[in-house]
Amino acid sequence: MDTIVRKVDINSIDRNVMEEASEILKKGGMVAFPTETVYGLGADALDEEASAKIYRAKGRPSDNPLIVHIADMNQIDRLVKKIPDKAKKLMERFWPGPITVILEKSDLVPKGTTGGLDTVAIRMPSHPIALELIRTSGIPIAAPSANVSGRPSPTQSSHVEEDLGGKVDMIIDGGPVGIGIESTIVDCTSETPVILRPGYVTKEMLEETIGDVDTDRALTEPMSEGVVPKAPGMKYKHYAPKADLTMYRGDVQSVILKINEMAKTDTDAGRKVGIIASDETLDGYRQGTVISIGTRTDEDTIAHNLYRVLREFDSLGVDVIYGETFEDNRLGQAIMNRLLKAAGYHIENV
Ligand code: TXA
Ligand code: MG
User: Fold this and answer.
1) Are residues 161 and 281 in the same domain?
2) What are phi and psi of 267, to 5 degrees?
3) Are 161 and 282 in a shared domain?
């Protein structure tokens, strides 16, 4: 199919494009659009056929449920059985914004959208284009990240075109996204809510709002046998660049030394090396293609650039990637969750 690509200015949203996209959604088609976290691939969440198209376009396993995006609190009542107090508090504090809440689904939400589960993930994004699209169409929009399953999530329109061009009806190009990593997912179906995926909203921020919050064991013990994550999507290899990525943890000087050593061996053997550095360490490397992922003094920059840098190494065609770790900051857990998955959990202490 031909994919229509439309540029939209976030500060002055073109009504005609919103109408055009809404018509596609109403007919059961797919529209990729920017959110504040990553680009999403949207379709009518209440139309099982439309959801099925998303799974096909992404090559996504059918047991991996989609997030339903809303623009208004009055859209939620018919999607869920009830809203527990703690969930309500999270919505009041963080919506619209980068947090997704899991609740018991109503009968209206097809299991084709929820990967067969009796629960549904709901999120109210804060991106003006996303909100405008949901409002104009009047449709709760099911939207996973708009990448081919297993690839790094898209943080700009060209990433979506790379992965899904020719497979979706329309891509709304709203420029690069702000945050760059996906929303925090909180399961609110148990008395003590559980974080299923770390994100921009941290555990500390959640606990300030509702008291104790648990973390899904699968997030901290990813390799242990028998630990199955509650968010089905978290069990798949994810965000992976084509080359093998290994992360090195330790004091920065030792890490640089170790990566230089590895890079030299590879380069001597004729392999093309990529290195994930930071602004502070960029000059310390002697070999390979060195790309800064951001500055250690502002972790937001690291989250913002993370997926773009992984994709850049893909287009450079490197054979192997070595990376520093970024654990000691507010977003450390969210950032390392993505990098570790991209590395298939190859991490070494130096
Ligand atoms: O920031 C985001 O959340 C982006 C933007 C587009 O909104 N969306 C996104 O969707 O990251 P996706 O499909 O790439 O990731 C959704 C995650 C998956 O790991 C999925 O398993 C989990 O949410 N999930 C969805 N519904 C669930 C449910 N009912 N129970 C448990 N996990 C669920
Ligand atoms: Mg995804």
Assistant:
1) no
2) -60, -45
3) no
